[in-house]
């Protein structure tokens, strides 16, 4: 092949998909190997003694819970950013997570003996209401100001919901309970106490099947309608999936802040905005990040354990600031 052939438009067009495919395969393989290695390590770190029963009752359920929660929350952030068309939103910054916590408080106050599955249903409902309220406010924001104003409005809405929930919990002497719910922690995960997280795994599968429709919806209402897509129905389905993942994670393990903000942004720098391409890498990267933070939580203050939500929040906030500085730096 001559130099002219290599520099021709046809050669460039053929090389671009090959490069993109190679990048996807490389990112997927790296995320898979790293997450698998951390998962194996997670089975053994922090255990004073290890037996078959401890593995089955405690270590394997905990590792599975970390994988499911990390993948679900990373996916939720990616899906919400795509549907809202803003890179600076995730369930914890638009009121979804706080609304789920409010639903959990309502269920505990009104029906203390309600099973966990019932509390989860109420938390899903309030998470949907919180997300719908954010979208209603979003409609009043001018598109030209959306990039900066949308996350600010989401953070303000989250603060209002959190303040109201904290006030009610304080008046009812449930403040410590509320703090426990909203702080991600896997130390209490045992067999029989994490299985609701498989609903988040099911939400991941549904997201994969509808990935092309979500990607089209992320282009905007007009483009999606021209493609023959029911934009409103697709957006509603996406927000239901986000609310289910957020509520299940809050009910079972607590909140994991900034996870859905950092991971999708980093992956999008490598793979772009096509949901079907990036979803597996985002899910694996989210699971791997939470696994790494969980290992740090177990070892930094051994034999005591730091809530993993604290580690995720610190790492996520630092990573997001670094990402912002990188994007604003010299090009």
Describe it:
With 331 residues, this protein is mainly alpha-helical. The chain has a single domain, classed as Orthogonal Bundle (ABC transporter involved in vitamin B12 uptake, BtuC), CATH 1.10.3470.10. Helices cover 75% and strands 0% of the residues. It has 14 helices and no strands. The radius of gyration is 21 Å and the shape is globular. The two termini are 33 Å apart.
Briefly note the CATH topology name: ABC transporter involved in vitamin B12 uptake, BtuC
Rg for CA atoms? 21 Å
Quick one: biggest sheet? Answer: none
Number of strands: 0
CATH homologous superfamily assignment:
ABC transporter involved in vitamin B12 uptake, BtuC
CATH architecture: Orthogonal Bundle
Shape: globular
| Oligomeric form | single chain
Poorly predicted regions are 1-16
Question: Nutshell version of this structure?
Answer:
With 331 residues, the protein is mainly alpha-helical. The protein has 14 helices and no strands.
């Amino acid at each position: 092949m001559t130099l002219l052939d290599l520099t021709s438009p046809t050669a460039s067009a053929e090389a671009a998909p090959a490069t993109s495919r190679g990048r996807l395969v490389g990112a997927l393989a790296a995320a898979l190997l790293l997450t698998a290695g951390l998962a194996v390590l997670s089975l053994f770190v922090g255990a004073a003694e290890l037996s078959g029963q401890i593995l089955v009752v405690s270590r394997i359920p905990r590792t599975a819970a970390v994988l499911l929660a990390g993948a679900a929350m990373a996916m939720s952030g990616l899906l919400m950013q795509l549907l809202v068309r803003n890179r600076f939103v995730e369930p914890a910054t638009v009121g979804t997570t706080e609304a789920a916590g409010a639903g959990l408080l309502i269920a505990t106050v009104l029906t203390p003996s309600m099973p966990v599955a019932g509390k989860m249903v109420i938390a899903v409902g309030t998470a949907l209401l919180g997300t719908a309220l954010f979208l209603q406010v979003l409609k009043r924001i001018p598109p030209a100001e959306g990039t900066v104003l949308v996350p600010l409005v989401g953070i303000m809405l989250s603060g209002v919901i959190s303040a109201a929930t904290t006030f009610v919990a304080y008046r009812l002497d449930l403040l410590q309970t509320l703090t426990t719910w909203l702080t991600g922690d896997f130390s209490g995960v045992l067999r029989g106490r994490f299985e609701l997280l498989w609903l988040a795994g099911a939400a991941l599968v549904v997201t994969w099947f509808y990935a092309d429709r979500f990607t089209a919806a992320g282009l905007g209402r007009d483009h999606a309608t021209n493609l023959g897509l029911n934009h409103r129905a697709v957006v509603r389905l996406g927000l239901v999936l986000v609310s289910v993942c957020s509520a299940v994670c809050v009910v079972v393990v607590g909140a994991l802040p900034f996870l859905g903000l950092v991971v999708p942004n980093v992956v999008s720098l490598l793979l772009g905005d096509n949901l079907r391409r990036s979803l597996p890498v985002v899910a694996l990267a989210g699971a791997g990040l939470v696994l790494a933070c969980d290992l740090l939580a177990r070892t930094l203050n051994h034999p005591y354990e730091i809530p993993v939500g604290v580690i995720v929040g610190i790492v996520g906030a630092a990573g997001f600031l670094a990402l912002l500085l990188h994007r604003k730096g010299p090009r």
